[in-house]
């Protein structure tokens, strides 16, 4: 996935040699006068602007829902019902059925690893009780102890699910995820006999995400929390934020060296509809200079005595002022020079 500069953008705070290259690219004129000379009024002028210059670097990415997570069976039995690929499963709903009994999705970071019954204590108990309360069941205290009151509420929950009301929770009855999940793909089919550890489905989060794999040379762009702009397949631009940065090593084939890339995951900060897997363009901020004076690159002059300047237009007279250049972005260049202020007019080629 190669980087592409926004049209007319030259990145970075440039050295004198790099500025000379930029001058060549934009075919800037050479000043024929010293910085204090006067001349007749030029035909075209623009005002020196005070603004924030932002230089963005574009990379190809993919729109999807992020990395998949496997849902594995914790029990033995026959798969009797599966969700459709692309379906969303929320808390309290069955993510699949085993022997015609629902395996229910709950929210949490700790996987189910033991039977919960009266007298059991631990963080897994509290996590389960938080889910039970979120599903509307009452009459117990949410804490780290599985009490008789918890067992009583569980019996009501099991009755609602069509399960035998035993008041204890076997780990094969539940699956934990961070939140609602989207079924990305199915790993089995109805009628298959499975055992503990068998993968039933692969799921993702429900929110659309963009992912980009950067070469290590572009690693400076991969900053967690940094904002980006994503051009969607429909041409709309959506703002986003980098939420995850990971190093991915791909094993080389036929004696070739391994390839290391940086995978960036982006969450949108405005509403974006799921479009399935699709190509997007992500604009990373490569440089930013707030509240600087800037003019179009075409306003720069190459001074005969060396360096660069702009031609100031003041009424019927003009003068050339030597400038130092900073960031080039979006066809503009940051300038500093003696006496320069926002609102002054500079000459540009007509």
From TrEMBL:
List keywords of the entry alphabetically: Coiled coil
Q: Identify the residues that the record assigns to the Peptidoglycan binding-like domain, covering every copy.
A: 122-172
- Give the main localization category: other
Cell compartments where the protein resides: Cell envelope
Protein's UniProt keywords contain Signal: no
> Which GO cellular component does the record give, naming just one?
cell envelope
Keyword Coiled coil on entry? yes
Which residue ranges are recorded for the region named Disordered?
A: 57-79
Q: Which InterPro entries match?
A: Peptidoglycan-bd-like, PGBD-like_sf, PGBDSf, UPF0194_transport
Highest taxon, organism lineage: Bacteria
Q: What is this protein called?
A: HlyD family efflux transporter periplasmic adaptor subunit
């Amino acid at each position: 996935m190669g980087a592409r500069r926004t049209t007319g953008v030259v990145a970075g705070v440039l050295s004198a040699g790099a500025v000379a290259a930029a001058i060549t690219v934009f075919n800037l004129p050479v000043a024929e006068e010293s910085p204090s000379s006067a001349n007749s009024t030029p035909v075209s002028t623009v005002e020196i602007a005070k603004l924030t210059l932002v230089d963005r670097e574009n990379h190809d990415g993919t729109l999807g829902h992020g990395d998949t997570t496997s849902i594995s069976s914790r029990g033995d039995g026959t798969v009797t019902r599966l969700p459709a690929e692309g379906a969303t499963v929320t808390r309290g709903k069955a993510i699949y059925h085993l022997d015609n009994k629902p395996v229910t999705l709950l929210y949490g970071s700790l996987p189910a690893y033991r039977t919960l019954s009266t007298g059991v204590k631990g963080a897994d108990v509290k996590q389960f009780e938080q889910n039970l309360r979120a599903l509307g069941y009452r009459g117990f205290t949410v804490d780290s102890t599985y009490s008789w009151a918890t067992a009583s509420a569980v019996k009501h929950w099991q009755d609602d699910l069509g399960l035998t009301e035993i008041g204890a929770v076997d780990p094969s009855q539940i699956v934990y995820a961070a939140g609602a999940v989207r079924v990305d793909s199915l790993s089995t089919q109805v009628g298959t006999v499975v055992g503990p550890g068998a993968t039933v489905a692969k799921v993702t989060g429900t929110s659309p995400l963009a992912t980009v794999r950067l070469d290590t040379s572009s690693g400076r762009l991969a900053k967690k929390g940094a904002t980006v702009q994503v051009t969607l397949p429909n041409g709309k631009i959506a703002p986003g934020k980098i939420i995850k940065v990971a190093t991915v090593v791909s094993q080389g084939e036929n004696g070739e060296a391994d390839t290391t890339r940086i995978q960036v995951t982006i969450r949108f900060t405005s509403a974006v509809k799921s479009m399935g897997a699709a190509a997007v363009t992500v604009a990373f901020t490569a440089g930013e200079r707030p509240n600087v004076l800037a003019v179009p690159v075409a306003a720069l002059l190459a001074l005969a005595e060396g360096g660069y300047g702009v031609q100031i237009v003041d009424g019927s007279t003009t003068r050339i002022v030597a400038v130092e250049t900073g960031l080039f972005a979006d066809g503009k260049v940051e300038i500093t020079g003696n006496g320069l202020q926002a609102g002054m007019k500079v000459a540009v080629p007509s």
